[in-house]
Amino acid sequence: MRFVAPSRAALDPAVLSRPPLAAWSDAADWIAAAEFPSVAELNRGWEQSWRFVEQTPQLLADGLHYETRIHARAEIATRADNWHDFFNALIWRRHAAVKAALNRRQVAEIARMGDKQRSRAQCALTHFDEGGVVVVLRDPALLACWDAHDWRGLFWDARQAWHDGRIRAEVFGHALLEMALVPGKLITGKAVAVLDDDGVTMPQALNALAAAIAAGRLLNDPQELRALPISGIPGWHPANDDAAFYAEAECFRPLRAGRRYPPPLRMAYACPYSSP
Prior knowledge:
Elements: H1 28-32, H2 39-43, E1 51-54, H3 57-60, H4 66-73, E2 75-78, H5 83-94, H6 96-113, H7 120-131, E3 132-137, H8 140-147, H9 151-157, H10 161-164, E4 167-171, H11 174-179, E5 188-195, H12 202-214, E6 226-229, H13 245-248, E7 265-266
Parallel strand pairs: 1-2, 3-5, 5-7
Antiparallel strand pairs: 3-4, 5-6
Helix pairs in contact: 4-6, 5-6, 6-7, 6-12
């Protein structure tokens, strides 16, 4: 069933105080406003070469693929009065380097595959763009829990780890932010794990991720992405202060037979990335 976000008039303001939307306090006025910001407002104060442009029939008459238009004209088609595209704009404003790396790879795949077929890499890039989460962790025991889909071990038994920085998550996928508008919704992201060898910050991890994506070392197949029920992260769902939640909620699925996750991205092998 296609997800339908609540209207602005029906928005429960409580969702703004709970992650992941609580991390967007700088955009809280836009999120809570009675009307969506215009593309001019979205562009204001954004010191990048790209620009948000309203998606109209006149714009689409150029026949360009969405990704190609971004690459060739630095124009990000944005539908008016649309939560999905609004959150996409917020992600561009905050994480332009990763967005640019995804776009560069998408354009290369379109050139290789044409616009009638999609490669495994395109699927992986799109899955992360829409539903991605970046997880930085420094405790191998937590990675072992995640590898086994031991959700109670990852979220409940290791609850303190989510508070003391041993594991941190940043939502990148704009579709996840849109889903978070619904109070209590169970949400699962598609994550990339980054191993914290030496006190890496989240911005450093995101920069390394952008470099790895741009170089083609990541997101060549959807199977590289790890399922992560972000509703299990302590404080991210109103019901997860009870251990029973991790046994009963539908989002906590067992590991599929034969499924193996790739090793995490290591900062030692990542190179700095500068967006074009």
